[in-house]
Amino acid sequence: MQAIRNLSLALAVLFVAGCASFTGDTSPNLPRNAKWGVVPMVNYSQTPQAGERSEQILLSVLSSHGLKPRVYPASTQGEQALMDDNERLAGALDWARDQKLDYVVSGSVEEWQYKNGLDGEPAVGISLRVLEASSGRVLWSKSGARAGWSRESLAGTAQTVLDTLVGALRFE
Questions:
Q1: Structurally, how many domains does the chain consist of?
Q2: Concatenated DSSP letters for 95-154?
Q3: pTM reported for the whole predicted model
Q4: Residue 37: what pLDDT?
Q5: CA gap 151, 158 in Å, rounded
């Protein structure tokens, strides 16, 4: 009976591990007390505003890991609302330099959807980067993807991916 229970547990762990994938660099030691910022996430998914949604979740995940990042002020009026994400990112890096931030977290959303079918599982793919604000140099990057269970929310799946990605950062 115990052997069957152990085998079932091992199979369940393998099944769950098969639903997520993470790749990326090993994080350098980054100072937790530095001036951090969050700048726009580039949206490569087919879901409108997936970048903005992931930024809000990222902000809470970073806070849960002890960071107090400043957030690039979103503008919903005028020409900036019509800019593509790469133009917004360039403007945000200028803002980070003006604010004298040390590091900014950025990235991209590759997938943000409910899969088609009876169950409609949430599927999220996100890449994060830590940039040196003064130079724009990439210090760390990591990507993750996860397909959640049919009753999970898209935001909950994204939070799991972002928490795993941010959890890979090493702080001094």
A1: 1
A2: HHHHTT-SEEEEEEEEEEEEPSSSS--EEEEEEEEEEETTT--EEEEEEEEEE--TTS-H
A3: 0.82
A4: 97
A5: 14
